[in-house]
Write a structure and sequence with these properties.
- This is HTH marR-type domain-containing protein.
- The chain contains six helices and three strands, in the order ααβααββαα.
- The chain is mainly alpha-helical.
- It has a domain of about 130 residues: Winged helix-like DNA-binding domain superfamily/Winged helix DNA-binding domain (Arc Repressor Mutant, subunit A).
- A three-stranded antiparallel beta sheet has the order 1-3-2.
- A hairpin with a 2-residue loop joins strand 2 and strand 3.
- Helix 1 packs across helix 5 and helix 5 packs across helix 6.
- The radius of gyration is 20 Å and the shape is globular.
- It starts with about 35 loop residues before the first helix and ends in a 20-residue tail after the last helix.
- The N terminus and C terminus are likely disordered.
Length: about 190
């Protein structure tokens, strides 16, 4: 898979410098070329690229796996039963099945996942986290989450990060909130 590096040097915008478009038919934006959705998408890509760059070495040091293998572990950790079919993992990550087969083999060799056949489908293979992987993820997730917060804040700035998080991840828009603090769910 080609290594994608998103633009991290997008110019900062002053939110108080919003100008109204002169023509109702033109897209909104600083110069009328990009609608807000495309600008937001570019900022999201920039943040994702920055996060990926920051996590690569940290994930390797903390877990001993590649960034792509880490994504497989995260997908599995987010499943109620802890397991997913290989085809579903490939779909969710947008990876070719052959590449995923190699990544899962590396994770299996490290003792972080197990593979088994899917009941009722002899061709289906399900991948499941081991207890070793669960312990590693539990121990390494808080500092990795903090690194993500820092990278997104650096890429977008605190105001854009808060706006992005508030829209995509309600309850996480407070730039001073630490990643391991749960948002207050008691208020609507």
């Amino acid at each position: 898979m080609a290594d994608f590096t998103a633009p991290t040097d997008l110019p900062e915008r002053d939110p108080s410098d919003e100008s109204e478009p002169s023509d109702e038919s033109e897209p909104s934006g600083e110069n009328g070329l990009l609608p807000a959705e495309l600008r937001a998408w570019m900022h999201l890509l920039a943040a994702a690229g920055t996060v990926e760059q920051q996590l690569r070495a940290r994930v390797k040091d903390a877990l001993g796996v590649s960034h792509d293998e880490f994504l497989v572990l995260c997908l599995l950790a987010d499943q109620p039963g802890g397991g997913l079919r290989m085809t579903r993992i490939a779909e969710l990550l947008g990876r070719p099945k052959t590449r995923l087969t190699y990544q899962v083999a590396c994770l299996q060799h490290a003792g972080l996942v197990t593979k088994g056949s899917v009941c009722g489908d002899r061709r289906g293979i399900e991948v499941t986290l081991t207890e070793k992987a669960r312990r590693l993820l539990k121990d390494t997730s808080p500092p990795l989450a903090h690194a993500i917060t820092d990278a997104v804040t650096r890429a977008l700035g605190p105001e854009r990060r808060a706006a992005l998080c508030g829209g995509l991840l309600p309850g996480t828009a407070d730039p001073d909130r630490q990643p391991d603090e749960s948002p207050d769910r008691s208020t609507p």
